[in-house]
Amino acid sequence: MKLSLLTLATAATVVNAAYPGDIVYYWVDQSATFVNGTVIGGLQSPPSAWYQAIVQAAVYQAAVKSKNESLEFQQLAVSHAAHNSALWVFHGSRLYNAVDASLRAIIPAIGLDPNSKKGKEAVQTGQKAAAAVAQARAEDGITNFLDFTYGPKEPGVYQQSPGANPFPDTPQAQFVRPFAGLGDITRFRPPPPPPTDSKQYEEELLYVKEQGSLDSSARSEYDTDTAYFWRESSITVWNRFAGALVGDKFTTKVLDSAKFYAQLNYALANAGIASWDSKYTHLGWRPITAIHHPTPWVSSGRDISDPSWTPLLRPTPSHPDYVSTHSTFGGAASAVLQAWNGGSDELAAPGVTVSSNVTLDARGVIERTYTSLREAAEENSASRVFGGIHFTFAGVEGVALGQRVAKETLKQFDANWDKF
Ligand SMILES: *[C@@H]1O[C@H](CO)[C@@H](O)[C@H](O)[C@H]1NC(C)=O
Ligand SMILES: *[C@@H]1O[C@H](CO)[C@@H](O)[C@H](O)[C@H]1NC(C)=O
Ligand SMILES: *[C@@H]1O[C@H](CO)[C@@H](O)[C@H](O)[C@H]1NC(C)=O
């Protein structure tokens, strides 16, 4: 009699407790806020993807280890995995209060007492998962110093942009060990950009000069909004896109959700590394440097120089043009989302609606609805040209690179996800 009452009580707890939302997405979303809260107000592109991949690796590991347990056990385990990995990454950024607050807020919603026997086991499962990933990632190369020397001030050669840092961002990120055992990242490297004395280069230069300038009268209002809409960290916006696409399909399926977001963020992190490999190999100059260049250099021989030209998005980021990492991230994310979408590029009606979360130049929050993943990735890519910070070829090749890297990441994932 005693035993069956106890069993009933336990069963009742199981049924009534558990966080009703998608616990993995809760942490994906909180992570975007943590990145924003760092002392510099964000991270450089590859580290921002690297960070989210580390958190999601730990979350997936915790989900795998607790997959036979109750829903709230799984939720508590992945929450501690996310918490500890976020703090491992941001330990030096004094983010303890913010990360602790996110965990403190979700524990009552999960409902499993962390001090109960099962609760303690769940906490430990999450903490162990975070430690395993941190240990494996401690020597992945992201913290290694790699110095940089600018090349000669000749057509096509990358230089510091006005308002940018004196040294370009994290050159060492091109050598970071990829996720899911991807191995040599250079095999994905895009061909060199078109020669600066080609007709194509001149056409693209004139296009970004006209469409991407701060005071452009040629750019449409829609395209100006496109530049602002996609301005946010790609990792944040594509994870939000993913969350809007999957909706509440994963609320009781922690393992499936953890796998999906690990795949997405591994692919994004690998895309960031591949993009950096291309940037620091090809060292292409930015549109602003090309347009400010004092002597004629385009194929027709005419003088296109305008030393006062200013791009819409300012300052031009502190790293080379080719390829656009924003576009590479978009290519990678769209490939993972397409795989999740049964291989289809088309999004079921009424499509996926996403809000921007960066308000620049008093433009306000912008909302967009997409019915095709390719369309979203291409618009994301074009946004950097309308912003005046990239050539079109840097975006086109970036999207293609991201897709190649993501497809290979998905192929390797099941066999190698836990090599960290
Ligand atoms: C879950 O249960 C299955 C079937 O009993 C077992 O093979 C597997 O090892 C268990 N997994 C974990 C992580 O406990
Ligand atoms: C932007 O993100 C912050 C932090 O998550 C949130 O408080 C805010 O409501 C978001 N704004 C929009 C428009 O989504
Ligand atoms: C991140 O910071 C920007 C700039 O302060 C802000 O507009 C945006 O809402 C923040 N986003 C999140 C997710 O907190």
Automatic annotation (TrEMBL):
Keywords: Signal. It comes from the Eukaryota. CDD domains: PAP2_haloperoxidase. The keyword Signal applies. The keyword Phosphoprotein does not apply. Residues 1-17 form the signal peptide. InterPro entries: PAP2/HPO, PAP2/HPO_sf, V-haloperoxidase. Residues 261-416 form the Phosphatidic acid phosphatase type 2/haloperoxidase domain. Pfam families: PAP2. PANTHER family: PEROXIDASE-RELATED (PTHR34599), PHOSPHATIDIC ACID PHOSPHATASE TYPE 2_HALOPEROXIDASE DOMAIN-CONTAINING PROTEIN (PTHR34599:SF1). This is Phosphatidic acid phosphatase type 2/haloperoxidase. It comes from Chaetomium fimeti. The lineage of its organism: Eukaryota, Fungi, Dikarya, Ascomycota, Pezizomycotina.
